[in-house]
Design brief:
Largest interface: A-B, 30 and 27 residues
Strand content of chain A: over 45%
Structural class of chain B: mainly beta
Helix content of chain A: under 10%
Distance between the termini of chain B: 41 Å
Number of strands of chain A: 11
Radius of gyration of chain B: 14 Å
Number of strands of chain B: 11
Order of helices and strands of chain A: EEEEEEEEEEE
Helix content of chain B: under 10%
Number of helices of chain B: 0
Shape of chain B: globular
Oligomer: heterodimer
Distance between the termini of chain A: 36 Å
């Protein structure tokens, strides 16, 4: 198993550009989520999904969209990038929304100029 | 809203020492507590998961304890090695939803050879 994979590893955007951060898992996990990690802030939940076709907002959803058309994939879209979205983004998955071990991807480092 | 605090923020010790990392949380209504390790520029690696009904979990040289009534968890590392140098994160799973995992800001650990 590859576990949780994320692409790209690093991206530079200009303010106003759009992009999609890719996340995929091959563990047949139902629950997937996106976090951002900022210095001094810790990791914060952006969006999550409890299964294909079901998504919901986390603590900091503004400026981000998600969709979940398959169990394996959970892309995160930035529609109009802002410098405040400069961060490291992590995708995570677990078998269910119950008390399960969360598995994290390697992260995408995003710089918005 | 759950708050997670990790003390100390940074720790530097000589190789071979036994050490304890602390995590405290404000709401005892938790499902589980998970300890992660994060290496510089990398993702999060799950170390130990303690369910709310458990008191401790062990994996190799690592032992994690949980005291829900006092809102505290400790991660004990025995016979520390330079390879243990990393940031250690404590995270609470409160049952899913918009909170997801609530993370502490981490303890940055350096083991001196």
């Amino acid at each position: 198993n590859a576990g949780v994979t994320q692409t790209p590893k690093f991206q530079v955007l200009k303010t106003g550009q759009s992009m999609t951060l890719q996340c995929a898992q091959d563990m047949n996990h139902e629950y997937m989520s996106w976090y951002r990690q900022d210095p001094g802030m810790g990791l914060r939940l952006i969006h999550y999904s409890v299964g294909a076709g079901i998504t919901d907002q986390g603590e900091v959803p503004n400026g981000y969209n998600v969709s979940r058309s398959t169990t394996e994939d959970f892309p995160l879209r930035l529609l109009s990038a802002a410098p405040s979205q400069t961060s490291v983004y992590f995708c995570a998955s677990s078998y269910s929304q119950s008390a399960e071990t969360q598995y994290f991807g390697p992260g995408t480092r995003l710089l918005v100029l | 809203k759950q708050e997670v605090t990790q003390i100390p923020a940074a720790l530097s010790v000589p190789e071979g020492e036994n050490l304890v990392l602390n995590c405290s949380f404000t709401d005892s209504a938790i499902y589980n507590l998970q300890w992660f390790r994060q290496d510089p520029g990398k993702g999060l690696t799950s170390l130990l998961l303690i369910q709310s009904s458990q008191r401790e979990q062990t994996s190799g040289r690592l032992n994690a304890s949980l005291d829900k009534s006092s809102g505290r968890s400790t991660l004990y590392i025995a016979a520390s090695q330079p390879g243990d140098s990393a940031t250690y994160l404590c995270a609470i799973w409160g049952g899913g939803g918009a909170d997801g995992l609530t993370f502490g800001k981490g303890t940055h650990l350096i083991i001196q050879p």
